[in-house]
Structure formats: structure tokens, C-alpha cells
Amino acid sequence: MSWCFMGDFNVIIGHHEYRGSSVPASLPMSEFQEWTNANDLLHLPTRGAWFTWSNGRRGRAFTEKRLDRSICNQSWLNSCSMVSCSTLIKNKSDHFPILLNFQMNSTNYASQFKFLKMWTLHDSCKDLISNCWGTQIIGSPMFILSKKLKLLKEHLKNWNKEVFGNVHS
């Protein structure tokens, strides 16, 4: 089973993830480390701000901690071809948001849809494209584009089977 956890764990894994005048409690750190080790979890490296939370105070009362992170198991990491984690700009929260970017390996999915040039030589293909593109869809321009492309893809797949059948048989 593949797992990826992401968010505010409200605990640090070591003193290097803490800056402030008081000393952080050791028990939560060791329990968190034990949990990640027992479940063979990996802490994904994060680019950007090292400390992901601050209490917003000044002077000796100021504290920063690395509370937010992404943790996964090897199975999840293996299912991705590229993984990156980074902090974004803090807005109104006392935490930096974390962005997790990843691409699933294409071997886990059915083959990609490909538009074949030979289709354009068939008159009914042009009609099919016109009909799909003329379909009335309500929403933002990106939503409309996305829906029309999905609709066209499904119609072209079915049309290809009807018109050309299995060209390999």
C-alpha cells in the first residue's frame, strides 16, 4: 500500500528543527521518530523556508519550528517519477503552506491518447470535431476547454473503432 502524509504534524524530529529560548520536549520527538521508523516512512526534503511555523512574537518569546512536512513510504515514492516539496509564501496563517509536486509513473496508467494524422483525411472526422467543439458547456474558459477535450477524446476513440476497427488484425 502506498502512503503519503502531508501537513502540520505539530512535532519536530530533533532540536535542529527548533529555534527559541525554551528547550523542546524530547518525548514527542522520540515518539514521532519511532512512528516514522516503525512504518518505514521517509521525510521528503523541502525547499524554501526551513522553519514552517512561528508564534509571531518578538524578542525572547519568539519561537520557530519545522512542524509541516511531507512523509511517504517507499512504495509511494516508487510510483512517482519526480517528487518535489517546497514552502510557499506565508499569507495570513502562522504556517508556511507546503506544495507537493509529483508525477505518477506512466506505467501505472493506460496508454496515452494520441490524435492520429490519418484521421484528418476522413471527412467524418472533421464533422465529429466540429460537433464536439460546438457543444455548449458552461463554466470558466479553462473548464470549458478541459470538458471539450475530454468529450472529443471519447468521441474520437469510439469513432476510430467504428471507422477503422482493429488495424492490426
From TrEMBL:
Q: Which InterPro entries match?
A: Endo/exonu/phosph_ase_sf
Highest taxon of source: Eukaryota
| GO MF annotation terms | RNA-directed DNA polymerase activity
**Would the keyword Transferase turn up in this protein's UniProt record?**
yes
> Which Gene3D superfamilies does this chain map to?
Endonuclease/exonuclease/phosphatase (3.60.10.10)
Q: Which UniProt keywords apply?
A: Nucleotidyltransferase, RNA-directed DNA polymerase, Transferase
- Its recorded name reads RNA-directed DNA polymerase (Reverse transcriptase)
What is the protein's species of origin? Trifolium medium
The organism that produces this protein has a lineage beginning with: Eukaryota, Viridiplantae, Streptophyta, Embryophyta, Tracheophyta
